[in-house]
Every structure is written in C-alpha cells, then in structure tokens.
C-alpha cells in the first residue's frame, strides 16, 4: 500500500509550527508495512489543496490530509477536498450532534464564558463521505474515496487516526542493525547486500548514540532475514545498539 501525506497550514510553511504530525503519521504507517511515498506541506490555499488531492488520489492507494478543518476563515481543507471530487459540503445529523455534544460539555466546564460557534461550519463534511467523529475535539474528519481528512491538532489527529489505523496495511518489513564502523568503510557492504538480496538499506550515522544505524527494508521475510544475517557476519554488525568514540580519525575516515 502506497500512501501520500498532505499536511495543510500556512503556519507549517512559515516555521511558526513544527510539523510533528508528518513524522508521527509516517511512523504509524511504516510500522503497519505501508510505503509512504510523499510528505508534502501546502498552504491554506483552496486551489493548491484541490490540485494535490486530485493528483495524489489518482496516483496512490491512499491520501492522508491533516490540518485546516473547522469553522475559522483559514480552515479551507474540507471545502477543497469536496471540490477535488466535485462534491458539495453537507452537515450530517451525526456530525452536527457530535459538535453540539462537545459544545454542551464545554459550556458545563466554562459556565461563565459565552461560546459563539457556527455549528454548521464546524460539522460540515463533503457529501457522500464517511464521517470520522472527533472524540478529542470539535470538528469531525471524514473519508472520501481513498482520501482521509484528519485534524491538525496533534491530540485530535492521534485519536482520530486510531479509528482508521487498521485500514492501512502493507507488506514492507524492516530490521535494524548497528555498527561501529565509519560509514565510508561499509559502503561496499551496503552495495553488495542490495545486490545479493531484494532489500534496500539506509545508513544513518548517529553521533549522540555513537554508532551507525542500518535500516534494512524488504517485502519478503526470507530476503530480510538473509540480508540481516549477511551484514552481521560480514561487517560485524550488531542487532543491539553499540557505541564507539567518534574521534578525529573517524571523521577523517568518513570523508575519504
């Protein structure tokens, strides 16, 4: 399963907000064997969102869109997703009732504060889409064909993703190894193992942890196991974290 992740928000592009959602969702998908093919941040721009949703919906098995839902003027995601499929926005009874219940709970907790909320704007989703109720917040998400629209607030995103997580599955598996060898010294082995086995290997130097972390990915367990065993034997890689002194000599070796 190949999935594209579209994160929406001017604040992401300006650097005002760190895009932790992209990292979290990508990790969740990868852990389920899904291939994340795109991670793209776009502004709160109706036409830009429409364009990306249309293209990604056609190109990939699934699209996850986060951010820009609700009733404020910059929340244009729902309208844009609806337009991408030539749909209108509608307010189903189930989403309206959920928003009203949430507002009632807020009024009980904040009896001295008057809440002025456009319930219809908050509860609107594209017609003929599947609503995803927001147990941790106000505005609902939805599923429209292969596009999943989720909130941008991290707690709400995580809560809503849990409701659809089982719909994302794939056959990619990964294994991790660790080595004290400088990266430049094991390039030949990484190239060799990808020739011998149907795997991809990434090497990630980590000076804080004082080792190189190798990530081996495959769609066949036998190929994955074979590649892992070969690297363990060939470059003395370890299946548990090891460490070494990243001294001046090591730095020079890595640049050669």
TrEMBL record:
Residues 4-172 form the MoaB/Mog domain. This is Competence/damage-inducible protein A. It comes from the Archaea. SMART domains: MoCF_biosynth.
């Amino acid at each position: 399963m190949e999935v594209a992740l579209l994160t929406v928000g001017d604040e992401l592009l300006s650097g005002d907000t760190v895009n932790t959602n992209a990292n979290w969702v990508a990790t969740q998908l990868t852990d389920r064997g899904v291939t994340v093919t795109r991670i793209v941040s776009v502004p709160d721009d109706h036409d830009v969102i429409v364009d990306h949703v249309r293209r990604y919906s056609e190109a990939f098995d699934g699209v996850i869109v986060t951010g820009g839902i609700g009733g404020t003027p910059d929340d244009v995601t729902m309208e844009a997703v609806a337009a991408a499929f030539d749909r209108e926005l509608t307010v189903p009874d189930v989403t309206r009732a959920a928003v009203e219940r949430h507002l009632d709970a807020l009024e009980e907790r904040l009896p001295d504060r008057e809440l002025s909320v456009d319930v219809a704007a908050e509860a609107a989703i594209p017609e003929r889409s599947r609503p995803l109720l927001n147990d941790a917040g106000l505005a609902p998400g939805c599923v429209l064909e292969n596009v999943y629209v989720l909130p941008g607030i991290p707690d709400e995103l995580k809560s809503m993703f849990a409701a659809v997580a089982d719909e994302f599955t794939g056959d990619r598996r990964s294994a991790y190894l660790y080595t004290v060898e400088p990266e430049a010294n094991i390039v030949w082995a990484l190239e060799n193992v990808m020739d011998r086995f149907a795997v991809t290997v990434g090497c990630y130097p980590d000076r804080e942890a004082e080792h190189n972390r190798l990530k081996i990915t495959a769609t066949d367990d036998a190929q994955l196991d074979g590649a892992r065993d070969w690297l363990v034997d060939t470059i003395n890689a370890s299946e548990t974290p090891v460490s070494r002194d990243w001294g001046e000599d090591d730095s020079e070796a890595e640049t050669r």
